[in-house]
Amino acid sequence: MTYIEPAPIKDKENPLESMMQRFDKAVELLGISEEMYYILKVPARQVTVGLPITMDDGRIKVFEGHRVIHSNILGPAKGGIRFDPAVNIDEVRALAAWMTWKCAVVDIPYGGAKGGIACNPREMSAGEMERLMRAYTVAMLDVFGPDRDIPAPDMGTGPREMAWLMDEYSKAKGMTVNAVVTGKPLVLGGSLGRTEATGRGVMVSAMAGMDKLKINPYKATAAIQGFGNVGSYAAVLLHERGVKVVAISDISGAYYNENGIDIEGAIKYRDLNRGTLENFPGAEKITNEQLLTLDVDVLVPAAKEDVITHDNASFIQAKMIVEGANGPTSASADDIINEKGILVVPDILANAGGVTVSYFEWVQNRMGYKWNLDRINRRSDRIMKDSFDKVFLTSQQFNVPMRIAAYIVAIKKVADTYKFRGGY
Ligand code: NAD
Questions:
Q1: Ligand 1 mean position, distance from CA 278 (Å)
Q2: Which atom of ligand 1 has the smallest separation from the CA of 231?
Q3: pTM for the predicted model, two decimal places
Q4: Per-residue confidence at 8, pLDDT binned at 50, 70, 90?
Q5: Would you say the C-alpha torsion 205, 206, 211, 212 has a positive or negative sign?
Q6: What pLDDT was estimated at residue 12?
Q7: DSSP letters along 49-61, please?
């Protein structure tokens, strides 16, 4: 029988393309030269490795892992490691470029990178995860380094995986190198405040956005997609500031209560229920798709990319979208959302709280010193608020949405730095 190559899936937009469309628009507005365009566009380094791992049943399974350094113009590259079945090189490249812009937008001295392994952590034992993480670290020994490329957690990974990475890297170097990775457990040199940092930055962005839109947080409602690291901390912190979180969700579905979800209760339920909200009581079960179109003040997509597209953008009723996830809105949805007058705090700004506190963690590791939580929160809140204000001002100066303004701020910084550093 003749083999027929399946057609590409047409309705799934490529996140790299979406990022590039916004990048192109900002570059055009800045009047960047063609040479500079290619310097900013092409990743500095891409590495793909095959990782044969012995599974618990004795079989050997080969996983594909990637690491992309998009840019190291501003400093060592920085970016998370994602464990997810959908990981592919296009996605990793897009996420690496996002990291370059994200670090530049919040003005920290890092370039951008990202890594990922196509695997399903939900179906793997702790032992299998550990072997996979250690094998990946060894395969990336000449990529990672505290002055070269500093990984961190992303979807499907956390402090446990970062500890394995730090240990494996340190063994290879013959000394403890805790600054090679951030998002580590506290006892290994992790920073106070890192776990909740991305959700906290989402909260600061949402509060700053509400202030601009003259929305009283005590009268505001929010819907949050994704109840993992980013979504659940954003929910707790928004709730603490008076915002009524009426819907939360995870991969099992969405949960709605017009009187407000009991957030602390939901976290306890999730933690006792193998990490999922499945059958969460005290709320009506709706779909993730319905959550996105609820009539709320603040919508926080904090799960995955490409959830707001040209198909559902016209049904969005929120007054503002604060992008906790990377790339939750496809480029084709931008115009529809802008026409509706919805304020979008874009991913490269809204979720930069994590990389900001990662940077603090690296600084502390290199100083051999620890800051207290109050100092970390004050400094990261100030960076997030100042960055929000800078992007908001740029959006007014160029008369563009905040997303394009954020790219303008970031691209200008990287391009200006390159001009001073020069090339061959
Ligand atoms: P996580 O693995 O802790 O949580 C992800 C959550 O999303 C889980 O509740 C999961 O059930 C849910 N989810 C997964 N697929 C879904 C789907 N199809 N529909 C609805 N819900 C779904 O991950 P995280 O660290 O919270 O990351 C979430 C997003 O935020 C990602 O896009 C990540 O790149 C981005 N991000 C994370 C950080 C960080 O510090 N963790 C920093 C910046 C950006």
A1: 16
A2: 26
A3: 0.90
A4: very low
A5: positive
A6: 57
A7: EEEEEE-TTS-EE
